[in-house]
Amino acid sequence: MTKRVAILISGSGSNMVSLVKSMTGDHPARPVLVLSNNPAAAGLKKAQDLHVPTGAIDHRPFAGDRVGFESKLQEALLAAHPDIVCLAGFMRILTPEFTQGWRGRMLNIHPSLLPKYKGLNTHARALAAGDHEHGCTVHEVTAELDGGPVLGQSVIKVTAEDTADSLAARLLPLEHELYAAVLRRFAAGDRTPVTLRA
Ligand code: GRF
Predict the structure, then answer these.
(1) Which residues line ligand 1 (CB under 6 A)?
(2) Core vs surface per residue 100-132: b (16+ CB within 10 A) or e
(3) How far is the centre of ligand 1, averaged over its atoms, from the C-alpha of 169 (Å)?
(4) Residue 29 Cα, ligand 1 centroid: separation in angstroms?
(5) Is it the case that residue 5 has pLDDT exceeding 90?
(6) Residue 177: which H helix or E strand, with range?
(7) Which atom of ligand 1 has the smallest separation from the CA of 90?
(8) Residue of 51, 59, 81, 110 marked active site
(9) What atom of ligand 1 comes closest to residue 88's alpha carbon?
(10) Cα(72)–Cα(56) distance, rounded to whole angstroms?
């Protein structure tokens, strides 16, 4: 049975594009919705150009009312009947109650080798720590921010010339490759972690 995939974005949606384009042929999943907390997210147009239904729930009117925002988000999600929800550059923190409702069916990509550098500014933190390796992680989303079971990692060497921007730029195509590989395996019911090395 083909799995239905909803993708949550906040901005450019490059990871979303990679996921949508990967779901063809004998892939066990298909995209059914791209949803953003930002009505102006550039990724929404990209999704429309790829003929994927889109939606936007602006989080700004819900300032201080995270639960109110999430109930609208949940309503839009449930209308698409997804089997899997992929967070892809989605920049809102979700409450434990919300994530618990999607436990085992929600994935996220994070630009570090978790459990290192949960949260923001991961590239600068890896550089500041003098790490020789850095990378990105796809994990199951749980109540703990950036803390769920790891489903895949892609590793790159850090060079002496690297800056936070150069690391981000070198990592982004690896995120696209990793997330597509993990989603294909996850949609087939296989949670064996994917490890890629650039
Ligand atoms: C990516 O670096 C991703 O790791 C982070 O958001 C950035 C932009 O992602 N979460 P996208 O282009 O919107 O997919």
Answers:
(1) 9, 11-16, 43, 88-89, 109, 111, 168, 172, 175
(2) eebeebbbbbbbbbbeebeeeebbebbbeeebe
(3) 10
(4) 21
(5) yes
(6) helix 164-187
(7) 10
(8) 110
(9) 14
(10) 10
pTM over 0.90: yes
Does residue 110 have an active-site annotation? yes
- For residue 77, the model assigns a pLDDT of 98
Structure tokens at 135: 């990378």
Identify the residue whose C-alpha is closest to ligand 1 atom 1. Answer: 89
Q: Which of 140, 178, 185 is nearest to 156 (CA)?
A: 178
**pLDDT of residue 198 exceeding 90:** no
Peptide bond into 39 cis (omega under 30): no
187 Cα–ligand 1 center, Å: 21
Long-range contacts: 22-30, Cβ < 8 Å, 24+?
22/180, 22/183, 22/184, 23/183, 27/184, 27/187, 28/2, 28/3, 28/184, 28/187, 28/188, 29/2, 29/3, 29/4, 29/5, 29/83, 29/84, 29/183, 29/184, 29/187, 30/2, 30/3, 30/4, 30/5
Tokens 């239904």 map to which residue? 53
Tokens representing 13 are: 């949606």
Is residue 1 predicted with pLDDT exceeding 90?
no
Question: pLDDT of 77-110, one tens digit each?
Answer: 999 999 999 999 999 999 999 999 999 999 999 9
